[in-house]
Design a protein that fits this description.
The chain has 13 helices and 28 strands. The protein is an alpha+beta fold. Strands 19, 20, 23, 24, 26, 27 and 28 form a 7-stranded mixed β-sheet that branches. It has a 4-stranded antiparallel β-sheet with strand order 6-2-10-9. Strand 19 (343-351), helix 6 and strand 20 (396-402) form a beta-alpha-beta unit. Helix 6 (376-388) packs antiparallel against helix 7 (428-442) and helix 8 runs parallel beside helix 9 (487-497). The longest helix is centred in the C-terminal third of the chain and has 15 residues, at 428-442.
Length: 596
Amino acid sequence: MGGCFSDVRGGQAAVGGGGGHNNNRLPTNSNSNSNPDEAVDYFYRSKGLQPLYTRIELSLSGSKLYDRDILSKSDPMAVVYAKKKNGALEELGRTEVIMNNLNPMWIQKISVAFQFEIVQPLVFQVYDVDTKYHNMSTKMLDLKAQDFVGEATCALSEIMTLRSRSKTLQLHGRNGHHTGTLGSINVHAEETIASKMAVEMRLRCTNLDNKDRFSKSDPFLRVSRIVEAGGPIPICKTEVVNNNLNPVWKPLCITMQQYGSKDNPLVIECFDFNSDGNHVLIGKMQTSIEGLEKLYQAKAGANFVYPSSRHHSEKVLKGSLFVDGYVEKELYSFLDYISSGFELNFMVAVDFTASNGDPRRSDSLHYIDPSGRLNSYQQAIMEVGEVIQVYDYDKRFPAWGFGGRMFDGSVSHCFNLNGQAGNFEVEGVHGIMTAYQSALHTVSLHGPTLFGQIINQAAEIAGQSLSTNSNKYFVLLIITDGEITDIQETKDALVRASDLPLSILIVGVGNADFKKMEILDADNGKRLESSTGRVATRDIVQFVPVRDVHNGEISMVQSLLEELPGQFLTYMRSRDIKPLNVNVHNVPYPPDPLMT
């Protein structure tokens, strides 16, 4: 049985159930009310635009995929695109990678807005991901470096109008070219459930059958929901517990979007993990969220069974599943907080290092064109400002510069952009633009590029707010043209700031090599570590190169809001901060000490 979900750690990490996240334990992926699309929608609604659509989740699986590997099976990942009227493809999302499997059942869902009044062509592409990329976040994978397996196309309405809302598509070569049998991909569509309810459970097993010869099994659980069409759709899996026949897994958080209803049938399968993808079934059972709740109440276990075969009937096993913790939670969304009065306070920092070029020369990134044409920094300020001011009520922005030589000859790595010693705030985006242009006449470009002081200044402001106002969250925007030279100092500052209500957006302008920025972004799944060995409690950085935005690969709105809602929710949930003026959801049972 294949089914290894290779997001990190060679396929042994949890997927889709919040178990692979930090100490807040609640998922912050698309299944957990942190969908960045709602933040984008909020921005467009603030402009008077009211999109009419239904949010849809797509579940994908493959069958008999063409094997691109020689010594093993392919490690497939699916990518879904929307095809624009001009033929351009807009990426909607990627699944996780499943190792050594030609019949993958992906857990990661793809969110898409269904607009019934227009035709929405979708393109599904399958890639075989090279082994050396298995510990990278899928969003960071360069698809050109992966082996293309095949693609299929259909309109979203073709799926939505089917009674089963499932459609199987044959894969072919690029642009419709047929290159033999490449396998098929099945697409199942479901409307997104508006409920915020979720269930967090701690699961363990006892007396599992040993499937290994020289050691004990390495078990993990896979949970699937049975849909009306009759087939199981995987919704999450636990991490692997190595060499243990009595495993205890990290808390698993499943949303109503995933399980449907408390009486909806679920299939729980227990596998012995094998690195080659041929996982061995230990046992399975059919239950429901309601059934798992009853196990918790009764403090009893449920026996696994081994499926019947041609010569043997279904066998009841000694191995049992126990539910040691069960809590029903309400997962508030990003918009629940914003609409209740929570505020995002934005701060801006501009790079004044010499690598930007002499502002008097037309090839400088800081050149002010007399014709009114905006330079790279002005474009970034305007485009970012249009997004961020929607969430900032007073629209007074702290604005700094760094890397500049001041009038007295000293070099400052954190100076007030408006030139006022006692006041770093400016009024609105126009105030940022005015202060920026004025600073170019009074501050000389110098260097080096240091982020540490700017981040510490922003962290100090965020920290001071904790004692006065808990409904503020801060976002520092750093606009820069190149690599930082204080990488370790910056990491130290970021690790300290990860405990505060603060996110940092880094916008890269120009054509410099931004590899170190990507390290700070921590999208490879590895959290930053300080010089003292302390690990960041959460990822608070997002890096966006403007050249990608201007090349049409992503919009500024979507790129800026891609990770911010999840970072915001991670902070609020880890501290049990709820939206203002909401009733605390009642927990049906006394809090379990194992869950706190």
